[in-house]
Amino acid sequence: xxxxxxxxxxLVCLGGAIAYVVLMYFFGFYISTVIFMAAILLYLKVxxxxxxxxIVAILxxxxxxxxxxxGVRLPVGTVIKALR
Length: 84
Known about the structure:
Blueprint (H helix, E strand, L loop, with lengths): L6 H37 L4 H23 L7 H6 L1
Helix pairs in contact: 1-2
């Protein structure tokens, strides 16, 4: 399953995950998730349409499952809080 994965790809995705955590602190869950998913999917050369569908689907699923159904408040971010 992972035979074609290059070590560089693994390191870039790991670095992206670390950047994702930092972005989440500043910009919150939703904005950071869009940026992270778009960057990683583009880096892995996933077609644009598939990337867009995946991003929208994941965000919608998380929003309805956690935000509406379970009532969990996801991180908002310091920049977004300052703009309010």
